[in-house]
Amino acid sequence: MPEERPRLKIIHTTSDLLMEITGWILLVMVWFIVLKAYNSLPDIIPTHYSANGNADGHGPKVSILLLPAISTIAYIGMTILNKYPHIFNYPAVITRENALKQYTMATWMIRVLKLAIVVLFGVIALVTLRNVKTGQEDLGAAFLPASMLLIFVPVAYFTIKSLKK
Length: 165
Fold this sequence. Notes:
Layout: H1 14-38, E1 44-49, E2 55-60, H2 66-81, H3 99-134, H4 143-163
Helix pairs in contact: 1-2, 1-3, 2-3, 3-4
């Protein structure tokens, strides 16, 4: 049975609020751009890109709506999850003494990851729209390494920071 962790209310700082507002603004912008371009899209568009960034799957234009939809669902889900930092997995043992620090770092990490997800899905949507207009079929070879860095660097950073005493 897992240890009973303290349930604390994390007070949001200005940085927290700015990160949240930035995420919501980016999410709305991606929806706006995709919906604005939707009617002018051809019936078939690139829907999947290989690891080297080349389009290797095509499908109906409605599939472009999946990109902002998935990022919206992930963003909202992670926003709700962030209200319960006592249920997260931590590399360190959570005690009354370190709970506030650990929870604060963990909720900040979730905010960074939420923003990264919106940026990644937004870039895929924008590049797909560009590709449709220009006839290109590539996401760019740098996209996969850049997306991995955008996700794993914050996780590694906050994990290491969490383990430091």
